[in-house]
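hey can u check if this looks right to u? its 205 residues, i copy pasted from the old doc so theres a chance i mangled smth
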Amino acid sequence: MAGCGRPCAATRTRRVSAMGADEVRIEPVPVEDYHRLERELFGDAARAGTAGVSRMWAHNPGLMKAQRPLQEYLLGDSTLPPRERELAILRVTWLCGSEYAFGQHTLFGERAGLSAEEIRRVTEGPDAPGWTPFEAALLRAADELRADARVSGPTWAVLAETYDTAQLIDLIAVIGRYWTVAVTLNSAGVPLDPDRPGFPERPAS
């Protein structure tokens, strides 16, 4: 596929993420090449989008194809209510400093019913005033998995009051998935898409 063998020169700029990395290391493939690959891999199920994250994955067609069913499950068919799923995703992408992933899921979160204030409050963590005990546990699970690779007993107990076993597994899986997405985006230096949000602005003190 033309244009997919080697990254192009890093000529694009983007807002600096919390990780401080602003170098584009893996330039998203050209849109035409991405659409061609989508048709080759997925046929009638090909997507027509232009998101930089999708065009970054296109540098590795095998991985691009292999991960699609997991992504569709986690964002469409999992046992988690969308609002709760997005709280967990926003928290782990914030912790990883992935402005791209946080911005993308700001839009998903809004569609799932999160307010702008709730999305901003995710950045303050599970102890911020305003969360229910269960919502705080969702955020704390992301904190603990990133820090300790394990959900603590107290956090698990709160989650298990509401979630069944399948939901607990889905929660861990979606946090792990978006840790992978976040660190890949950070390392690749994928620039923010035009007219897409990044991290929320802090309120004036």
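Residues 72 and 78 are 9 Å apart (CA to CA).
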